[in-house]
Design goal:
Layout lengths: L2 E2 L12 E2 L8 E5 L2 H12 L7 E5 L6 H10 L6 E6 L7 H14 L2 E6 L6 H4 L6 H13 L2 H14 L61 E3 L1
Parallel strand pairs: 1-2, 3-4, 3-5, 5-6
Antiparallel strand pairs: 4-7
Helix pairs in contact: 1-6, 2-3, 5-6
Length: about 220
C-alpha cells in the first residue's frame, strides 16, 4: 500500500496510509491540538531529565495501517502513553482499541484523556493507569499554562521513577492584561490610563487562538 510522508485533514477512514517513522521514546503523547503539542515541546526543552519524549498529532494517523505502523515502530517501545481524544472514543475507535490492547498486553502505562475541559469517566476507563492519576493529568492539560504543562511533564516522569510527583494543578485566571512593554505591576499602567478611550470586547472562548507549529502536515516532534 502507498505510504505518504505526511497527511493533513480530519480523521477519515478513506485517507491514505502514513508512516511517521518516529523513533521510540519513554513517553509518547498523542493529541489533535497542535498548540498543546507545541506547549509540551517547549516545556520538555527546559526540563532536567534523562527520559525521552515523543509527540505526534492524531490527525496524521487517520488510516488503520498508519496506526499499525506507529504501534509497531514507536508505541510498543514506550513506557507511558498519553492519548488526548476530543469527541470521545468514537472519534478514533480503531486507534484507541489497538493502543489499549497493546498497553494491557505489554503492561505499558496508558492514560486516555478527553480533549476538552470536561471529565469523561467512560473514556478514562480505557486507561491502564488509575483514575486519580488520569484525572490529575487531565487537570494539568485542561487548565493549561506553562506551570501546569511543567507539572504534567513532571508527573509523567515521576510515574517512570524520575523525581517526585509535582504540586497539584494551579488554577489559571479566566482573563488577564496584555502589555507589550515591561511592567512590574498593573499599577504601573495607571498613569497611562485614558478615561473615555475606546475599549475592545474580550475574545470569545469559542474561538481560541492556536499556533501552526506541529500542524498535521509537519513531522512529528521528538524530544530527548
Amino acid at each position: 500500500m502507498h505510504l505518504l510522508a505526511t497527511q493533513t485533514g480530519i480523521i477519515d477512514a478513506s485517507a491514505e496510509a502514513v508512516d511517521l517513522d518516529q523513533r521510540p521514546g519513554d513517553i509518547v503523547v498523542l493529541s489533535a491540538a497542535d498548540s498543546e503539542l507545541a506547549a509540551l515541546a517547549r516545556g520538555w526543552d527546559v526540563s532536567p531529565t534523562r527520559k525521552t519524549l515523543r509527540l505526534a498529532n492524531l490527525l496524521t494517523l487517520q488510516h488503520n495501517l498508519s496506526v499499525d505502523l506507529y504501534i509497531e515502530k514507536t508505541l510498543r517501545h514506550a513506557a507511558l502513553i498519553v492519548l488526548r481524544l476530543l469527541g470521545g472514543s468514537e472519534y478514533w475507535r480503531y486507534g484507541l482499541a489497538e493502543i489499549e490492547a497493546l498497553c494491557r498486553r505489554e503492561a505499558i502505562d496508558l492514560a486516555v484523556l478527553p480533549g476538552d475541559r470536561l471529565p469523561d469517566p467512560g473514556l478514562m476507563a480505557r486507561s491502564t493507569l488509575d483514575r486519580s492519576t488520569c484525572e490529575r493529568m487531565r487537570q494539568y492539560l485542561a487548565t493549561g499554562g506553562a506551570e501546569n504543562i511543567a507539572g504534567f511533564l513532571q508527573l509523567c516522569r515521576s510515574l517512570l521513577g524520575e523525581g517526585e510527583a509535582p504540586a497539584p494543578p494551579r488554577p489559571m485566571p479566566e482573563s488577564g492584561i496584555y502589555w507589550s512593554g515591561p511592567i512590574a505591576a498593573v499599577s504601573d499602567l495607571r498613569p497611562l490610563w485614558m478615561p473615555g478611550a475606546p475599549t475592545a470586547a474580550p475574545a470569545s472562548a469559542a474561538t481560541p487562538a492556536t499556533t501552526s507549529l506541529c500542524w498535521p502536515g509537519t513531522a512529528p516532534v521528538s524530544r530527548t
